[in-house]
């Protein structure tokens, strides 16, 4: 392995991300645009590489979580894209936000009033997005506040509301009754706002929301995870291309003469005669500790069970399934690839693919394909 990759290789396929973008876009109802969520450093995969790749595939609507991310993205992509900051603007930083051409998502009446007043005092345009709570109870105007907004025509006239957003709580469970309920609430809010502001665009669906069907698509959709290979229809076949591959160097191989316990806490026994390999990559590298004793690696076309707890910098694998020649040649173990998906790894750790991606460590070398 070359020096850049001696602590492991995280390979990110920008071509696959681009293909996933096109695949999602091709499913959309007529008139709906496909945006992209690149918050949290594009789910840990590197916004600086991922966002330009999406822009090259035609994406013009980007969503980030924070103003810092938005400012960095503006530098990266230039003025030709729309950037929406999903968690709004922090008091005292409104003019920076407007100055960078970012569209803050506002979710209280007070925020909207403040934003409009500040922009008007500064004599600058203040396009914004508005978020309503359609049932998730996280961020968004309450129905009472939304009523107050609609009863304030002066505010609606002076505010430059470009987008009405809401977020689905259960989109990854297509049969959950909450989906239809949130859809109705959003449609109702949208209808009322558009009577006063006919040009406001509408956006409801994340990755899984896109898969719920055309009535969830509206003007712009906001996929994140599916772009990065996470299955938007958990339980079903994953329609997305795998994006990440993670390969870790083997540090030590051994055959046990007698049965012994393995790792911290001596939680698991390995029998006499077992072949074990210890590889780099522990919980400080995003190999979540919760998968200890359940997760697996991959080499020579076979799954290799993890044995014992995951340490901070390494974990142990049972390589008994390999032939002697394969064992002798074994220099690395794959933790993520086409076979072991982020969803599979997440299952071992009792979490979701999103957390696997955003936990990926910074000690690996990174290689981008298709850049
Ligand atoms: C993160 C986020 C998304 C993207 O969700 P995925 O499930 O990753 O597609 C969309 N909308 C909002 C408001 C978000 O916070």
TrEMBL record:
Residue sites binding substrate per the record: 138, 312
SMART domains (UniProt xref): Ala_racemase_C
Location of the Alanine racemase C-terminal domain: 243-369
Keywords from the named record: Isomerase, Pyridoxal phosphate
CDD domains: PLPDE_III_AR
GO molecular function terms listed in the Swiss-Prot or TrEMBL record: alanine racemase activity
Transmembrane regions listed in the UniProt entry: none
PTM sites of type N6-(pyridoxal phosphate)lysine: 39
InterPro entries: Ala_racemase, Ala_racemase/Decarboxylase_C, Ala_racemase_C, Ala_racemase_N, Ala_racemase_pyridoxalP-BS, PLP-binding_barrel
SUPFAM superfamilies: Alanine racemase C-terminal domain-like, PLP-binding barrel
Entry EC no(s): 5.1.1.1
One Pfam family cited in the UniProt record for this chain: Ala_racemase_C
The protein's annotated pathway: Amino-acid biosynthesis; D-alanine biosynthesis; D-alanine from L-alanine: step 1/1
Catalytic activity: L-alanine = D-alanine
Active site: 39 (proton acceptor), 264 (proton acceptor)
Signal peptide extent: none
Enzyme class: isomerase
Cofactor(s), by name: pyridoxal 5'-phosphate
Role: Catalyzes the interconversion of L-alanine and D-alanine. May also act on other amino acids.
Family: Belongs to the alanine racemase family.
Protein name in UniProt: Alanine racemase
Species the sequence originates in: Microbulbifer halophilus
């Amino acid at each position: 392995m070359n020096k850049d990759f001696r602590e492991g290789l995280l390979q990110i396929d920008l071509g696959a991300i681009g293909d996933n973008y096109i695949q999602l876009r091709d499913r959309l109802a007529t008139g709906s645009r496909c945006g992209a969520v690149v918050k949290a450093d594009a789910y840990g995969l590197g916004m600086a590489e991922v966002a330009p790749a999406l822009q090259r595939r035609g994406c013009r609507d980007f969503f980030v979580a924070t103003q810092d991310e938005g400012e960095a993205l503006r530098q990266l992509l230039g003025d030709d894209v729309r950037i929406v900051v999903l968690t709004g603007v922090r008091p005292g930083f409104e003019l920076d936000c407007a100055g960078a051409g970012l569209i803050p998502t506002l979710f209280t009446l007070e925020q909207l009033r403040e934003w409009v007043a500040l922009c008007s005092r500064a004599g600058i345009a203040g396009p914004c997005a508005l978020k309503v709570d359609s049932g998730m109870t996280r961020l968004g105007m309450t129905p009472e506040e939304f009523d107050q907004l609609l009863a304030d025509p002066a505010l609606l006239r002076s505010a430059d509301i470009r987008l009405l957003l809401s977020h689905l709580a259960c989109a990854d469970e297509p049969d959950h009754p909450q989906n239809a309920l949130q859809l109705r609430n959003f449609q109702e809010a949208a209808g009322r706002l558009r009577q006063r502001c006919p040009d406001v665009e509408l956006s409801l669906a994340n990755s899984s929301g896109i898969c719920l069907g055309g009535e969830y698509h509206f003007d712009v959709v906001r996929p994140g995870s599916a772009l990065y290979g996470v299955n938007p229809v958990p339980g079903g076949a994953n329609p997305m291309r795998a994006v990440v591959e993670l390969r870790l160097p083997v540090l030590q191989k051994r055959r046990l003469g007698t049965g012994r316990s393995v790792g911290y806490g001596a939680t698991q026994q390995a029998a006499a005669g077992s072949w074990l390999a210890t590889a780099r990559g522990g919980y400080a590298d995003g190999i979540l500790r919760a998968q200890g004793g359940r997760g697996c690696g991959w080499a020579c076309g076979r799954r290799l069970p993890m044995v014992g707890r995951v340490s901070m910098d390494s974990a142990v694998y049972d390589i008994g399934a390999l032939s002697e020649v394969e064992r002798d040649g074994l220099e690395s173990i794959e933790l993520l690839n086409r076979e072991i998906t982020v969803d599979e790894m997440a299952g071992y750790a009792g979490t979701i693919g999103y957390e696997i991606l955003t936990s990926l460590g910074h000690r690996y070398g990174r290689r981008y394909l298709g850049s």
